[in-house]
Fold J domain-containing protein.
Amino acid sequence: MKESCTPIEALAERLIELSGRKSLSKWHREEIDSWLDELFELIAAVKPERAGELAEKATEVFYQVSGYSKEDIERAEKDEEELISDLEERLREMMEKQFGEGFPDDEDEDWDEQDDLFGFTSEQKREKTKQQAGGQNKVETSDEDKSPGADNESSLTDDARHQGVDKWLAKLFRKAAQALHPDRESDPAKRAIKQETMSELLAAREAGDIIHILTIYTEHVQQGPAEVPEEMMQALCDNLTEKIEAIEYQKEDFLHDNPAMMFVYQMLYDKQKKKQKENIALQQERARELAVMATEDRAYMRNLNCLKELLSERYDNKAILSMDEILSQFR
């Protein structure tokens, strides 16, 4: 893909060069900007620094043609932000005037018991929902139907549950730490392994990683599944959910900081290896096609008239695609 990127860079440079011509109309320049954005995105996937250099060059040409300076653009953006802020403030004042000072916001604790904009209180809405349900889902549970431990389970507060988890976890940790104590191992190789595993165990305790502690316990203390009390299962599920979310955040941060990896992940990755191979072959073919198209467009773009012809083709193709989207809504 880096090899196919070279003709795309050459096309972008040619577009930037011709975009400085005075005779181009407004729509011509808008189409060139759109074209360049597409090319910059392709280049940035494999050569982010090069894409940045070309973008800066295009900005310089824009300043020369428009007659504006960088300071003028920044000033205009600042004025736009101030205008938006002013409009938001005026809109807020209008809302307060319309609904009065008593109009509750999201943090108003009494909002649940106040009439909403349709005239129903929350109590009325609950009663209306019950009527609509027709009482079909309502099931009466007698004392005889309740399980023996139901009252104890319902009376178990969150604090008590956490205390129970902590005690159970501390017991697992102590047994695992005793089994992994390096001083109890005479074999140097095995002692090194235990030291490394002990470090993992300590790190897991520091991070509150219940799953990792349980994994080390089952590997080095009790072979096979550990006995997990029923009341601890929810804590394990919550801990596993937190781990999954943490991994997702790490993945998103990594991809955000690595444009090339983001491109690879979005275009090529799949859980099935067969599908991955298909994606790779498809992107390789697409890269070759883009390189050929870029080479042909660059060669055809001999002068300004040729550029205008290509821009007209792009504009017409977009109009056709837009019409197809509109028509598809009525099919």
Notes: The longest helix spans residues 70-99. Residues 106-122, 135-157 have pLDDT under 50 and may be disordered. Residues 2-67+275-328 form one domain.
